Structures are given as structure tokens and as C-alpha cells.
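Please, structure for the following, as C-alpha cells.
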Amino acid sequence: MLVTMIQVVSKGISIVSKWNVRRPALRAFAAVTLLAGTALVSFSGGIAPAVGQETNPRRVAKPLDARSRTIVQSVDMQVKRAGAAYAGGDYETSGEALRKAIKQIEVAGNAESSELHDALLPMMRRIVNARAMLELEGVTLPPFRIPQRPKATTEPMAESSSDPSDQPSTDGVSFVSEVAPILVDKCGSCHIRGSKGGFAMPTFAKLMEGPPEGVVVFPGDVIASRLIETIETGDMPRGGGKVSKEQLDTLKQWVTQGAKFDGPDPTAMLTSLKSGEATPDTPATPEPDQPTMVGKPTGNETVSFSKDVAPLLVENCTGCHLDAMQTRGGLRMDTLAQMLRGGDSGSVMKPGDGEASLLVQKLRGSAGDRMPAGGRPPLSDNDIQLISTWISEGAKVDEALVQTPMKVVTAQAWLSAAASSEVSQRRAEIAEDEFRLAGADVNRLQNHQSDHFAVWGEVSPATLETVAESAEAALQQARKFLPKADGSPEDFFHGKASIYVLPKRYDYSEFAKMVEGRSVPAEWLSHWKYDGIRAYVAVVASERASEEEIAERVVAPVASLAVVSRGEGVPRWFAQGLGTAISGGESKRDRNANMRRQAELVTAVGSLKSGKDFLNGKLPPERADRMAVAIAESLLSRQNRRGFDAVLRNLQSGQPFPQAFQAGMNMTPIAYVDAWLQWVK
């Protein structure tokens, strides 16, 4: 049935391609038809129907091996990208995606596999028709014919796991001998021996996990892999390093082939893989002791980790053990979990006995060199005693803080005790620091204050005022959906939120690179960030932008900032999705943009196995954001609105997000997203 539907859709595209598809109505029909062909595959469980059956029902299908499945997934992804770009009127991008799909099919032809040919056949038919449509739009593409089906193989192909970390790869690019050396050489100082920009990839497992904002390697998909994108655009590596064309090609081939790991232990340090200390034939050296378990606070403790201990560690250990380019003694302390794991000398803490703990002994100078090193003054006896007492009392801490960056823990503790006016002042200081870091002349920096916002930028006062007015209007719109906040206007964000106004798209991009350590998608003109102390919207705006354009760029991120600041631990997907949904950001887009967004949603849903993948950042940012909006719209529906309102009230009352969501919706966030996925599919 599915194959028949695809054939009907393909025939419809072929007919349309013979007409004048430059007429808007027919072009729209052609785009929708092309996307429909893709959607049929996606909503039927990814590419499984094509992989699991042949087009001739009399043939008995054989399972594909891992390499063949990767090729099918990659071609399927490129065809979907071509459809999405065509729907948005971006014919050059659509053509480029088809070129890549055609090239991948040529590679697949070398395999002489009848099973692989059958799996690719529906996509090859769509390529034929899409190629005709694009040539009518003036896009030149290489010739393409569906190749003849190879003779059926006599032996079934070996079945293997599709998970890159399940088993070693036996062919293709080797991660251990080819990829790891490139990463260590070009990324080592910032992301392997350090965590520049909050991203550390000391092991294969951490590389595939990605930074907090999302995964950077998508097996089989070079375009979606942010690791490749940042290298190709020149964003990375920084500091004068350069990845050669040959090295980049190696990385691309590795991703295309499924980003496989061919070593014995995905948690082994990449530096040991490079140096040969842990090879496929030699068991990797185990990691230091597993994290020491800590208990939950009872309320009877005299020392608080977040208020007393973490600030001392951040102040005195940064540079050597926190945010360190090269970690000293193998001890990382960016999070409590890392500190509990210990370093080269083993565990540094013995909960229940502070004075016997190596951390305290190092601070006192009774076990080797006294810490902190590097000429820094030693901690006072009172400060050391605070740390010792905390350990002696069991080193107890709320579970949510174990994996939270220690700098964030410190910031949140300060935030909870500070007055709104103090927070506003601190955010003003941060604004100047971050503009300076982005290369701005702070002497020319202008500032405009409104009830809830402090607006900064090297633009005219009139532009800052327009941005402030748009932000206040956006906040008023968002507050219709949010519980009322008591106190003065300045208390809404616990201090005024900042808005950074960048006059040009280039300035905005540089700001993201220098301040946030990341590249933002090409179509972005604004975004938000919140970690408690930092609460800002960055937006492109100048005297040339109209009030309507400024308002359109500001409305969704301001709404998201309002949502994320309502409670503890609100995840980005929830704030981003609701911010866009309650601001009407999706409905304001033109028809082509909405078609493109719909295509992104189709692709995102079709690529997910479960809600856990979405919540754990297994999607590129653009797809994750589109899916977050769709989930948020379902929360705002009539049947779910009562539960959604309860979630927000629970957050406002101080409940952490997981508990607030479960109490309001009567299910966990993962269960809700899983149910939503099943409904959509």
C-alpha cells in the first residue's frame, strides 16, 4: 500500500513537471507533492518500509548491513532537505541537496547490492521527478537515471546494530586511528583537555552526547552535524589552527558511514587513543573511581554546598580545575559529579571525614604541594573548615545540583539571596563585559531603561527605545498566559532583563561566537539566554529596521524568557516552544516559511525513536525548535489547557520542572512527548 501511494505521488510530480510550474499555484502543488512523498516514508516509521521490503512482492527481502542502512538514511535525509528547500523557494539549496543524494547513490551502486537498490528505489524515483522540477527553475543538475537492479545476492548480509557505539566498525574510516588524532590535534586544548564554551569531548561517548544545547554529530547526516558545519564555515578551530581539506573529508566520510566507534571502550580518553595507549587490541585504562554517592540534605546541616562551598571552589580553582584549558592532576571540577570522580590520585573526598579527604589536605598543605597553586593565596582557615565540615556532614547536596555546572550553582545561590536591584546592577556589568568581549566600543555603548528591561547597543537612542517598547508589548502579551507575578515590575525577571541590540547580522553572529562560543543558524535574527543571573535577548536591529520588523524579532524570545524565568529548571524546549506559540510567532510567517517549518517538523518526527531522544537534545536546533513549538501548541489546546495552567502555577510556587509538569499533566515530560509522537504519527 505504501509503495503504491509513493508511485501515485511520483506520477503526480512527473505530470506537474511537464506544465509551467513557475505559476505559483502549480509550484505550490509540486512542492507539497514532493514533501508528501517524503512524509509518507517518515510517518511510516522512518525509512523502515523501504529497508524491510522490496518493490516486487515475489522477491524475498534480505536485511541490510549497517553501512547500507547508513547510505539509505543519508539519501533519505538529502531528499527531505531538497523538498523542504523547494517548498521555501530556495531552489539552489534544494539542488545542492539533490546533488549530494545523487552522489551518495553512485557510491551505493559500487556495493552491487540488490537489497540496497530496492531500499533506495522510492527515493530515486522522487529524485528523477524533483530533478525535472528544479531544472524548470533554472537549476543545473547532473544527469541521473535509476540504475539497473543488481542480481540478488546469494548470501544474506550480516545484520548489525544501527547504534554507532554498539559494536566496532570493520570497514570504512577508523575513529581510533584516523578521526581521533584529528580531533586531539585540532580540538584538544579547548574541548578535549578543556571545556571551552561549555563543551567537553574528552571521550567518544562525550563527543556523541554533545554540549547542553544539542548533539553535534548525527550519524549518516553530514549537513545536520554541527561539528562538520563549524569546521567548514571556519568557526572552528580557533586560535590559528586549521583543518586541512583531507582531514575534513575524513571527518565527513566517518559521519556519512555512520560515525562508528572501532575501539574497545567509548569512555576511553581520546588522547590515549591517539597515543596508542588504548588500541582496539588493548583494553582501555578504566576511568578513575566512579563518583562517590552523596546524600540529600536533611535541613540539619550547618554548611550549604551551593551557598558556602561552591563559591569558594569557583573563586579559587578556576583555571586549573574549572574552565581549564589543561586540567591539572586529572581533576575536573566543572561539576560536583566530576569532582566526586576524582583525579589521577583517586578520590579527593571521603564523605563523613573531612580532614581525611585529599581535597582538605591539599588546601591545608599537609599532602604535597598546597593548593591553590600558581601563586594564588591560600584559603583562610575558616574557609577550609567550611569545606571540611561540609564533607564531614556527608557532603550532602540536592541531586539536581550534582550535574549542574558549579559556576551556575554559585550564580543561582547568589541570585536567590540578592535583591532585584542588585541583580539589575550585576546584569548591567555583565552587559558591558560581554559587549567588550564581542569587540564593541563600550564608550559608545548606549542604554535605555524600561519597566522590565535594560536595552544596550551601539545604535541610536531612538532604536533602543523602539526595541524596549516592542519588548514591553511582547511581555504584556505573554503575561496573559502566565501566572501573575507579585511585586514591582523589576521583580518579574528578578531584576531587569537585558536586551542586546546588534546593528548588523555580522555583529549578531560575532556576538554568538565570542560570548556564547557557538554559531547560530543563518536564518536567526534573535535569540534568548537564561541561566539565572544572565537573562537576555540578543536581536539584530538598527535605524533601517521598521517597528514591525523589530517587534517580530523581539516578541518570541521575550515570551520565552518570561516562561523560562517562571520556575526552577525549566528546560529550553519548553520555554522556546511556548514562547513562540503564545507570541503567535509561527502564524506570522509567510506561506513558504510555514511550509518549510512543516517540512522540518515532518523530518524531525520521522527521525525520532522516542520522546527521550528529543528531550536529550538528539535533534539539530532548528528541528528541535520546530518540534518544541508543535508540542507547546498541543499543551495550549482546549483538552490540555487546564493541566498546562497547573504546570505554570506549580513552577511559580517553587516546584522543580519535572515535578511541576507531572503534577499538572499527570504524566512525566517523556511520557507526554511519547504520547504526542504517537498521535502525530
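Strands lie at 446-449, 453-457, 497-502, 526-530, 535-540. Residues 1-26, 32-61, 153-170, 274-292 have pLDDT under 50 and may be disordered.
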